[in-house]
Amino acid sequence: MTPTGRHFLQIPGPTNTPERVLRAMAAPTIDHRGPQFAELGLEVLEAVKRVFGTTQPVVIYPASGTGAWEAALVNTLSPGDRLVCFETGHFATLWQEMARRLGLEVDFVPGDWRHGVDPETVADKLRGDTGHRIKAVLVVHNETSTGVTSRVAEVRNAIDSTGHPALLLVDTISSLGSIEYQHDVWGVDVTVAGSQKGLMLPPGLSFNAISQKALEASKTARLRRSFWDWQPIIEANKRGFFPYTPATNLLYGLREGLRMLDEEGLANVYARHLRHAEATRLAVRGWGLEVLCADEREHSGSLTAVLVPDGYDADKIRAVILDRYNMSLGAGLGKLTGRIFRIGHLGDFNDLMLAGTLAGVQMGLIAAGVPIDPTGINAALDRLQRP
Ligand SMILES: *Cc1c(COP(=O)(O)O)cnc(C)c1O
Questions:
Q1: What are the percentages of helix, strand and coil residues in the chain, rounded to 5?
Q2: Cα of 293 from ligand 1 centre, angstroms
Q3: 173 CA to middle of ligand 1, Å?
Q4: For the CA of 144, the nearest atom of ligand 1
Q5: Among the CATH numbers 3.40.190.10, 3.40.50.1000, 3.40.640.10, 3.40.50.150, which is that of 19-262?
Q6: What stretch of H or E contains 222?
Q7: How remote is the CA of residue 128 from the centroid of ligand 1, in Å?
Q8: CATH number of 8-15+265-384
Q9: pTM to 2 decimals?
Q10: pLDDT tens for residues 18-69?
Q11: Which residue has the least CA distance to atom 4 on ligand 1?
């Protein structure tokens, strides 16, 4: 069918870019060494700290989230250092693969892709490491491949309970600006983030929020780095500049996106995402389908992964929904390919956008011949009629 009207981009990132952000980016590119840029640089570098919950430096890279993963590792670690990583899903798997390729030694704790990081296991691993060979614990806060959110504050407490000095590195690429996060209060050492999910920008920026302890570690970390090196960037950032040509127009967009988050208030932003996630689960269960996340404490606020019944191909269902209803849903990744689809409900989003999304999913499931209860959506609509 020839698509008409607005496309529904309901993948869990990139998310819908608000008009305000698009307009803010539609500006002439300026001299990145001039006074006008310095003003923009100083403003965004300061404003971005709030969404991380930090007063410490945040480095901004002109790169996708994967670049900021690499930056977090190469700035804090040395060849042969040992890490503990958790197989929460596809993104956790990719991050630890990157660590191995960089010459780090990884203890990869297996998982079933339906649970987050178990704080008890973190404590056990560190308690067993009396020689302090483990230098860092890696956690993906919101596993975008599964819709499971790990309890980072509890992981921090688990680390503290052992007195172990390992750094805590956290990927918040699909949670920052959508799900509550506190870099300073939770004692995270490096927080990795990206522009194209909760921050509502197009792809192209990524971030490292850096604790004092991580900054200290970077002085002796011996992994090779040049472009990703924090030191020259932090130095230039003091005057609002970058050591290379920054992504000026994306920074205009970032300034506007951060203003929008401030206007709504971060607490309201987080509550909105939790409410939409709850309504989505009500619809999924109303259809008689299963949510992938298996722990009630760990449901993601930014996306919901839905298991399709045996004998049905989730990618075929997604293709029907794209063709008939002009809506993109997230695919199953890695070992979940074909077994799940993912509904993104993060970023610039409201009740009617969710109602439209769920109506499209329901009609698409029926069109694809999946046996569901067609009253499923009603529970979600009931939920949306309450604050
Ligand atoms: C999207 C995502 C990534 C990958 O980020 P890119 O911008 O595609 O490099 C990594 N981790 C998580 C949790 C993500 O959601």
A1: 45, 15, 40
A2: 19
A3: 6
A4: 15
A5: 3.40.640.10
A6: none
A7: 31
A8: 3.90.1150.10
A9: 0.98
A10: 999 999 999 999 999 999 999 999 999 999 999 999 999 999 999 999 999 9
A11: 65
